[in-house]
Specification:
Blueprint: E1 4-6, E2 12-14, H1 15-42, H2 47-59, H3 66-76, H4 83-95, H5 103-107, H6 111-114
Antiparallel strand pairs: 1-2
Helix pairs in contact: 2-3
């Protein structure tokens, strides 16, 4: 391929160079996403069970139906499916910029919901007169 494009400093950049660089970029994004997917799954601990036990210890007692709650959360978060299917869903969600449940947004309201509590265009902040 001998198509050329003008560079930003007046030089000529070949189209095959741009395609090659874009391919390397996609490879790096795929590798980073794969590491991000598999690294937490290498550990043999069940993160849902650990979090529920931690929360119950804060409350002072351990819930009797712990296994049922773990099963419900595993289905809700898609962890009851085979690993290859989770991997495909994970990359499909990344391509659609759908990051589902984030641990920070589960407990805290979004910034837009706090402005609903304070009437007016500026929310709770008032400018001095």
């Amino acid at each position: 391929m001998t198509t050329t494009v003008s560079g930003r400093h007046g030089g000529i950049v070949r189209a095959d160079y741009i395609i090659k660089r874009f391919g390397i970029f996609l490879l790096i994004v795929w590798l980073a996403g794969s590491v991000n997917f598999f690294l937490p799954r290498i550990n043999s601990q069940d993160p849902i069970r650990e979090k529920l036990i931690q929360q119950s210890l804060i409350g002072g007692y351990i819930q009797s139906g712990m296994q049922e709650m773990v099963d419900i959360y595993q289905v809700k978060f898609g962890l009851a499916q085979p690993l290859w299917k989770q991997y495909l869903y994970y990359f499909n969600d990344i391509l659609h910029l759908d990051f589902n449940y984030l641990s920070r947004t589960i407990r805290r309201p979004s910034p837009s919901s706090s402005s609903k509590r304070c009437p007016g265009p500026s929310g709770c902040s008032r400018s001095p007169r």
